[in-house]
Task: structure prediction
Amino acid sequence: MNGLLQHTESEIERLTAELLQQQQPDGSWRFCFDNGTTIDAFFIILLRSLENDKYEPLLRRLHDRIVRRQRQDGGWSLYEDEEAGNLSSSVDAYYALLYSGYSSHDDGHMRLGRRFITAGGGLGGVTSVLSKTILAATGQRPWPKSINLIPPPLVLFPPSFPVSLYDFSSYARIHLVPMLVMAERKLALRTETTPDLSHLLAHNAPAMNDADAQAHDIAANMQAGLSRLIGRPALIRETAIKRAEQFMLDRIEVDGTLYSYASCTILMIFALLALGYESDHPVIAKAVAGMAAMRCELHGDTSTIQNSPSAIWDTALLSHALQEARLPPDHEAIVRSSGFLLRLQHRTRGDWSVRNPNAEPGGWGFSESNTIHPDVDDTTAALRAIHSSCDSSARNREAWNRGLAWVLSMQNKDGGWGAFEKNNDKQLLTLLPIDGAKAAAIDPSIPDLTGRTLEYLGRYAGLDIRHSFIRRGAEWLIRHQEKDGSWYGRWGICYIYGTWAALTGMRAAGVPAGHDSIARGTEWLLRIQNEDGGWGESCSSDARRRYVPLGGSTPSQTAWALEALMACREQPTQAIHRGVARLIALLREHDWKTIYPTGAGLPGHFYAHYESYAVIWPLLALCRYRNLAML
Result:
């Protein structure tokens, strides 16, 4: 295998050289966080609703990208192998193209789109709550009863009530509040150029305004909270709307965006319009500018709006990967990337402190503009990146200690870790009749975050299962292993991602390689290895909650599987050799599988292709292989 090891060394050197050239002057790496066409479509609809022509060149580039992403059958999909396409994203795309003015009813691609949408159920078949909200806010459909089910006074309920705003996950909450404002005001904003989408109503289509009976328990809990508020109902609702308005304004970042997400920023702008803000109000103008700055230029003179640029995530992971590739801590690239990360460590309390009031700030967020919404995964990524320089830098050591303390404080009472908040696991909210509520309404312990956190604590903080809180985390993972030996991954695709995180985390925490849970996890990975030596999993796994093979191998998923197997072996096996050879080949290929989305946001609705993932995870896996092969 000397030849394979030589190829590995060459690839590590090549990737390292390319990354050093791609580093920005401020020490960051900036790769595109491609979320598909939905945010692009919403941004076009927003600009036209505001009658804002300031960003016309960008709007045209977004339009052109959406056209190029259309399938041959006329629809749009969230990922390449989504066989039937995606009705919600197709309606979003069609609406945006028509509203942009650069496509017309009679264009061939629009006729194809119309045929696809009506065959799939038309507007009544749309399931995405964001799509339903945009359609309702612009007068294309009634407001969904699923939103009206939640009373605006929810924002007034203290955490001690049966259900409060803070029982929702942070990412659900920040989207829900502007939705409640719009629904309460019955916003139906139309301009002289707003298209009429009534031609997308299909015969015998599902009703557009139903709510499931399973929500009755939630409604009863919210009604119990309402009954404890003192005052006239009309006054209470008006007070709630004022509180909701302030809630949004208080969470606007320096760049003008809400929580640094384009999706909820778009909703906020529509909510402010519902409250009577003029379309050129400074808050709205700055929010639009903030989202426009999130643009990412793509090949073919097209652009996309990133939902939340990934500069911190990419920089932390790449800095760590380069150090694994043997760049020393005092290398200029590592010093500069550490400086970038250190400047962006959070020092302000955010909503996470409601359930974790005694912890000091010290986390990191996903985006550069994010100052109040840290998450556990970005924090451990940043801490890995600055770890090697802690002994020589008091500044780094202080940041490390603050970050470590924050991560430890975020452990849930069940032993695991979630993403953004602590003990956010009120299962009742997952029964809301809102598509995606099961995955997004709460932020409980999950295998990928628990595994990633244990890997950081074990490898870089010197902690293991002799410490009770580490042992509780490992035991949580063991309890939540799937029957087939895999683990579900919430923020990546999907079972490969979760299994990688769980196995590397448990091994770093000191769980023996011979443990039954470890053995079952590695056996599962070996069973699903492709004939070409790599690994690949479909985004369909995410919604179906079972492993679905992709039919090909992807760079990131192959790297994840390899890292997991290598963490459980003392020397490379034939399966690992084959996987490494395939990984090196994948780095030279450029087809739909190498740009397949392997990041997850919301099952069935939101997936991400991290441009950086074709480099980060392969580089780490190749470094691990080199180390293992040279033992």
In short: The radius of gyration is 24 Å. The chain has a mean pLDDT of 93. Residues 262 and 307 are 5 Å apart (CA to CA).
